[in-house]
Amino acid sequence: MVVFVGMAVLAQPQAKPLAHLLKPPTSRLLPIAPPLSVILGLDPSIHAQHSARMAGYVYIVTNQKNGTLYIGVTSDLERRIYEHREGLTPGFAWKYGCTRLVWYEEHWDIGSAIQREKSLKRWYRQWKVDLVDAMNPGWDDLYLTLW
Fold first, then answer.
1. What average pLDDT does range 21-33 have in this prediction?
2. Which tens digits make up the pLDDT trace of 53-108?
3. Total domains in the fold of the chain
4. Bridge-partner residues for 57, per DSSP?
5. N or C: which end of the chain has fewer CB within 10 A?
6. DSSP 108
7. Range of the domain at 101
């Protein structure tokens, strides 16, 4: 690029292309690993069962339609909702009688479920109500549909 300043002509250095920064050096690449089931010597069905147990769930329970909302996260949705229904764990949901499961979402791992729970807790109430309405317009108790 050439810039004219008064009578002088200044040449600015050309920027180098950045393509070389976008490719990782080939010397640092690791060989492709075999599937985890091969490494562990596991039958693939066992590995799949193990992975399924590592799932996470985000859920919303309430005490009535458009009532108090509680957002939680768990790795075992059936057990956790049972605990809410039976009042086995004192806390916010127990205090306000939130026993009706009205919305839930499954995640591949508990970490992403926790992240989603934290995000939902920052939402405005109306957004949460709209989320429940989209999946469950009648705000029916979904607990019995889990089996």
1. 44
2. 569 999 999 999 999 999 999 999 999 999 999 999 899 999 999 999 999 999 99
3. 1
4. 74, 106
5. C
6. S
7. 59-146
Q: What global pTM score does this model have? A: 0.64
Kindly write down the DSSP assignment for every residue of 13-70, as one continuous string: PPPPPSHHHHSPPGGGPPPPPPPHHHHHT--HHHHHHHHHHT-EEEEEEESSTT--EE
Token readout for 78 is: 């059936």
* Residue pair 56/109 in contact by the 8 Å Cβ criterion: yes
CB 58 within 8 A of CB 117: yes
> For residue 32, what are its two tokens?
């492709």
Give the DSSP per-residue string, 120-134. HHTS-HHHHHHHHHH
- CATH code (residue 117): 3.40.1440
Task: Tell me, yes or no, whether 129 lies in a domain.
Answer: yes
